[in-house]
């Protein structure tokens, strides 16, 4: 037992040291460049979509990023990720109604609530191997949806949803679309930076090893259940942050935020962009939102489209768009290398 | 109370019919077949369609539903699941979920989104010890028990059944004996689809038929299969009746809890016995 605790402490310590190093020393310039690039992409989107929709896109990207940590990096497919989004959103709504007038404090409360929900559900579902994990999470999502719809109807407003009061406080004014946009963009960059640092640390390597072969990682002496649980909680927490922002962005919460069938959208966005790559998640989030915004104008049967697209991805395009781009790039690089060996050498 | 038990038995019977197929595919291939819901929904809708537009009696409508749904099940197995054998199970899950989405949309397109009621085909009641029960529900329970014993006989006495049972226990071992398990999985899959459609047909007069009726039932079946044990057909039988009872009795004393009590039971079982695939 003592060994296990020591070992956990050791890896966590290593991770924190690595995170600290990453933040202070190596590759700071590159990360700043990446963040600026993402920011610029969203700023370019604003004139086309309007600030409100661009905010929506950014929030969805946060949720997809959190899902990508769980599915793309650790290889655990969850069909109940919206539960935590819903928990975050409802906590913000209820906190602003009954507890506080400060939206920032409400966001913190939403994140904590999603974290706690993730801890409780994760403790049960992480023990399930294989595809049953996905369905068990879906079951818990359904339980959450039902709780909001019926037994807790009096405080959550049931089907009608919950309008949020006290959107402005001090300089923090969530009634102003421009403020919302900048706040959400900053949150997205923060989340991206955090996940970028996490996934490139030794903890991230451990996650990818669990994805490849959990048994071997266990033979190496790691308590994989514990790390799976930590990752689950982390993903839930980030998703709760996304949910809290959703609530503040719309000014109301309704049960659709944790609709069980909407989970397919997140999975689709993640696969479309390319799972296991943070850029893929961002790209997938943006393209998915573009599709959902534009497609209904031309084509009514949304679920049919989603189903066919998912089948196509599963059968043909596993890597998604980002994977395709990477393959294209490496193919071009290889050709350039064989074309002129001198250039290849200098690389 | 007697009525609650009766209702619980009915729900348990229907749950059993749907869970068997799910349990077979989950137990043999470790594949979670989300498209199982669509064969169930399809069975119920075909029943309604054939009763309303063809004017056939309930029995033949049900037969049409079961046969067509079994064919649909075969197509799903042949063209989606078989192409993903030996790959990550997550892809199979996503693919069957995609089939579910397509199926639901087709159902919506053909028959609309609004729930459709089906009338009780028998409409008679039986008087037992002063309690009045609808005959139809008694028949449903009886049918589930017949199916259970039929499956038991099939699994124990025929060669095909024995191979499926062996594959439930150890798939690699069966393959080592030189038996092409895929063929038998396919058979088990079609059998499961037909039984799911039968469940849909039988449950239609008790509840309303709507496009998403399958997804809730599937989660309940999942709870049943996990509670009863993976690929354990007797366990599935017992667990479906136990959970059906639990749902109905909870519904009597705490109506809001009846929807979630099955999942609480599932969580308790999972805490006691994690699944290692």
TrEMBL record, chain A:
The chain crosses the membrane at residues 32-51, 81-99, 105-124, 181-206, 226-252, 264-291, 303-325. PANTHER family: ABC TRANSPORTER ATP-BINDING PROTEIN, HIGH-AFFINITY BRANCHED-CHAIN AMINO ACID TRANSPORT SYSTEM PERMEASE. Signal peptide: none annotated. It is found in: Cell membrane. It comes from the Bacteria. This is Branched-chain amino acid ABC transporter permease. It is a multi-pass membrane protein.
């Amino acid at each position: 037992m003592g060994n296990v605790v020591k070992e956990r402490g050791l890896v966590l310590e290593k991770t924190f040291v690595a995170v600290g190093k990453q933040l202070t020393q190596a590759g700071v310039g590159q990360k700043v460049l990446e963040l600026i690039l993402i920011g610029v992409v969203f700023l370019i989107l604003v004139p086309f979509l309007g600030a409100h929709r661009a905010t929506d896109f950014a929030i969805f990207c946060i949720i997809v990023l959190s899902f990508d940590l769980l599915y793309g990096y650790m290889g655990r497919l969850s069909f109940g990720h919206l539960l935590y989004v819903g928990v975050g959103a409802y906590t913000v709504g209820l906190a602003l109604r009954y507890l506080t007038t400060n939206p920032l404090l409400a966001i913190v409360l939403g994140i904590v609530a999603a974290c706690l929900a993730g801890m409780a559900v994760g403790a049960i579902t992480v023990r399930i191997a294989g595809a049953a994990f996905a369905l068990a999470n879906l079951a818990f999502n359904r339980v959450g949806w039902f709780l909001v719809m019926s037994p807790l109807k009096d405080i959550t407003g049931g089907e009608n949803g919950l309008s949020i009061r006290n959107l402005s406080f001090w300089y923090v004014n969530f009634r102003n679309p421009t403020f919302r946009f900048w706040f959400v963009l900053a949150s997205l960059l923060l989340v991206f930076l955090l996940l970028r640092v996490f996934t490139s640390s030794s903890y991230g390597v451990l996650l990818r090893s669990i994805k490849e072969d959990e048994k071997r990682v266990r033979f190496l002496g790691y308590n994989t259940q514990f790390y799976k649980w930590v990752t689950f909680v982390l993903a839930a927490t980030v998703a709760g942050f996304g949910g809290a922002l959703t609530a503040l962005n719309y000014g109301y919460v309704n049960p659709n935020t944790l609709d069980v069938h909407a989970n397919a959208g997140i999975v689709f966005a993640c696969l479309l962009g390319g799972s296991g790559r943070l850029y893929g998640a961002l790209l997938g989030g943006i393209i998915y939102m573009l599709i959902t915004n534009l497609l209904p104008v031309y084509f009514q049967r949304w679920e049919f489209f989603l189903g066919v697209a998912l089948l196509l991805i599963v059968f043909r395009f596993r890597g998604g768009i980002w994977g395709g781009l990477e393959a294209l790039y490496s193919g071009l690089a290889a050709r350039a290398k064989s074309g002129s060996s001198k250039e290849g050498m200098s690389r | 109370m007697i009525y609650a038990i009766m209702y619980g038995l009915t729900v348990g019977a229907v749950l059993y019919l749907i869970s068997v197929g799910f349990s077979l595919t989950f137990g043999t291939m470790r594949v979670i077949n989300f498209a199982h819901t669509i064969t169930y929904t399809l069975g119920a809708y075909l029943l309604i369609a054939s009763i309303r537009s063809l004017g056939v009696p309930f029995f033949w409508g049900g037969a049409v539903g079961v046969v067509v749904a079994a064919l649909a099940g075969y197509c799903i197995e042949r063209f989606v699941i078989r192409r993903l054998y030996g790959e990550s199970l997550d892809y199979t899950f996503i693919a069957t979920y995609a089939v579910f989405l397509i199926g639901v949309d087709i159902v919506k397109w053909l028959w609309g989104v609004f729930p459709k009621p089906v009338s009780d085909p028998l409409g008679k009641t039986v008087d037992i010890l002063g309690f009045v029960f609808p005959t139809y529900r008694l028949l449903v329970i009886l049918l589930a028990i017949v199916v259970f014993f039929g499956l038991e006989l099939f699994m124990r006495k025929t060669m095909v059944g024995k191979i499926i049972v062996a594959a439930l226990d150890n798939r690699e071992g069966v393959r080592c004996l030189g038996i092409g398990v895929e063929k038998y999985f396919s058979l088990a899959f079609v059998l499961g689809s037909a039984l799911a459609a039968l469940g849909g047909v039988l449950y239609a007069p008790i509840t309303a038929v709507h496009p998403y009726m399958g997804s809730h039932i599937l989660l309940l079946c999942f709870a049943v299969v996990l509670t009863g044990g993976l690929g354990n057909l007797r366990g599935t039988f017992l667990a479906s009746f136990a959970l059906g009872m639990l749902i109905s009795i909870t519904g009597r004393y705490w109506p809001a809890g009846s929807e979630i009590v099955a999942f609480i039971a599932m969580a308790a079982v999972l805490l006691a016995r994690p699944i290692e695939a």
